[in-house]
Amino acid sequence: MNSIFNFLVILLILLNFRLISSSRLMPCIHVLVIQALILSGVAWMTHQGHMSLHLYFMLVVNVFLKAAVLPWMLTRVVQKNIISRELDPLVGYSPSLIIGVVLLGISVMISRPLSLSHTLIEDLFLPVSLFTLFSGLFMIIARKKAITQVLGYMVMENGIYTFGVAMAIHEPLIVELSVLLDVFVAVLIMGVAIFHISREFNHIDTDRLSVLRDL
Amino acid sequence: MIWALLILPASLGLFCLLSRSSNLCRYLLVISALCHSTMVLILACHREQTISSQWIGLDDAGLLFLAITSLLFLGAAVYTFGYLKAEGDSPIKDIEEHFFFKNSHNAVFVGCMLFFLATMTLVTVSRHLGLMWVAIEATTLSSAPLIYYHRHHRSLEAVWKYILICSVGIALAMLGNFFIVVAGTHIEGAGPLLALDDLIGHASSLNPTWMKAAFVLCLVGYGTKMGLAPMHNWLPDAHSEAPSSISALLSGALLNCAFLVLLRIHTVMITAGLGDTSRMLFVLLGLISLGFAAVFIIGQKDFKRMLAYSSVEHMGIIALGLGIGGMGITGSLFHAVNHSLIKGMLFMTAGNIMAAYQTKTIADVKGLMYTRPFTAMLWLAGAMAIVGMPPFGIFLSELTILGAMLDTGRFFVAGAYLLALGIIFAALTAKVLPMIFSPPTDPLQTTPDENNAKKLSLKKEPVWSIAPLAFFGFLSFVLGIYMPPWLSGLLDGVSRSLGGQ
């Protein structure tokens, strides 16, 4: 069991590096799908002994939204706008990798005093969830295309979900469902906004959204 | 009754979205705002009968902010009623860059406004941190189409920043919620702790390290929504590009809602014995907000952005008051009430000025007193109130907070507070007074005949654009000289739950 968890943790870390070092959008979306599948797998494994009906339901909804509906929507946006890659990011791809390593170090450092050390899973997953969160934030800051920023937001959400899974946090169904729905609607509205941005400006680079500023 | 408060605006909003009829929607907006306010009033009078579960309930703080939200929404609804009619359906010329754009459909606008009301009500009545998180995120999503009412590139930019920054903030707040749950996992037989009453009940056995980390995350997350610097970047853009009544709602109601959530988490921190950490962070962010606002108001050329930065300032003052504690808590809550009234009034007055002069630039507005006397009076009164001149309520609350600072011996904080307030006082007055009193340059706007001018200006200032604003100003004026006993009872109740006096 532990070796499987170790393997998944390393896989999650590598996937994050893949995300922050890749310029192509479609592979990034695929990575998001894999991440969502791994997280659901972890959730299933941690609760194998005591799966209730509502946990199964949550898992199914989660997989359905994060691994099917949202990637499908983003793929459509990518295809409609005929963009395949992020050119000329604010931070280049090699520096991004180095920053990624630094972020990983920071996440390990932050999680050391926080660890409750009940089980091995928690020790492993806290740094990984923080690292995923930071990678998402980094993608939002360092990339220009609106769609990449939405991808970054979803990576952040995955990081938070990782934490929830590892700590076995299970709030009543209603909260979890509405959280999922909120994320779904947020990404949906962002998608609509991207559509308007591309129509208004003929591209979706957010660095040109800079009329409103004070400095 | 509480459920009715939520369901009524939500269902009417859905009806508006489906009906696609502009006129019907305008009437529905005012009617539902009236119903909502009436229900809040009834609820306030019969508080003993309100149901209270783990999820939904109405305590002192919730009632206070619910009442402000409802009142402000009523005023904004009346204003919007006239505003939507005046906007019409034809393409409109942009006032800054002179291209033509269209507005989004009125039915969508009104529908989203009602959803916005429902979600803000949900924030004020929820007793569960998870539900609060959902409600705050829902306010972002339902208000985004409102900011993008004018379909042009500047409002699109504003709405993109708004959604992205607030969503990131709210994601961090969710992690904060998870941390709170983790802080309570070792407590036997409690289950996942997120309901406010459970949390306060078990507060003493929460893990302090995780609680502190959770508070930092929540403060950053909800602080983004509340407009505390340095997470305030979305605020000036969204406030300056949204229609004026929406700016008033964002500033007067939405920021307060985010503050309310922070207040709840602060309560948990205090009962957990970690009040010093949270107080220190509130003071720190409050001072940073004051500093940012002071710097950016000095150089501001756009009067709506100026008001937006003034909102950052006042949110800073509210956070500061909460962080000082003691009488400062009462002062900060009273400040929130006054700020909502005055800022609502000012933003809608700014809308009147924009309609009259077709500009947002301060230098282009001259002789307001001669062309639009009522708007000029409101603008002057509002500016006086917002910089903290007596006899308006803000003077009283700012003085209370200052008193609390001196009582607790924080002279450095008090000095910085007074310095920032002084700078903002000077900068704002220097910008507002020329707008009102300098002689008008446009010959078309002045008529030689005094009587004729008066008639004309009365015609140009319809009742819907004056009456709600004057009412807000009057209320704040009254609060400055007379504190009704039920309000002081409410404020004391909240203050006591936070360990104040």
Textual characterization of the structure:
The complex is a heterodimer of chains A (215) and B (501). Chain A is an all-alpha fold and 215 residues long. Chain A has one domain (1-200). Chain A has 7 helices and no strands. Chain A has helices at residues 2-21, 25-46, 53-81, 93-114, 120-142, 146-166, 173-201. In chain A, α2 (25-46) runs antiparallel to α3 (53-81) and α4 (93-114) packs antiparallel against α5 (120-142). The longest helix of chain A is centred in the N-terminal third of the chain and has 29 residues, at 53-81. Chain A is globular. The model of chain A has no long low-confidence stretch (mean pLDDT 81). With 501 residues, chain B is an all-alpha fold. Chain B has a domain at 273-500. Chain B is 75% helix and 1% strand. Chain B has a two-stranded antiparallel sheet. In chain B, a hairpin with a 6-residue loop joins β1 (92-93) and β2 (100-101). Chain B starts with a helix and ends with a helix. The mean pLDDT of chain B is 89. At the A-B interface, α5, α6 and α7 of A face α5, α6, α8 and α9 of B.
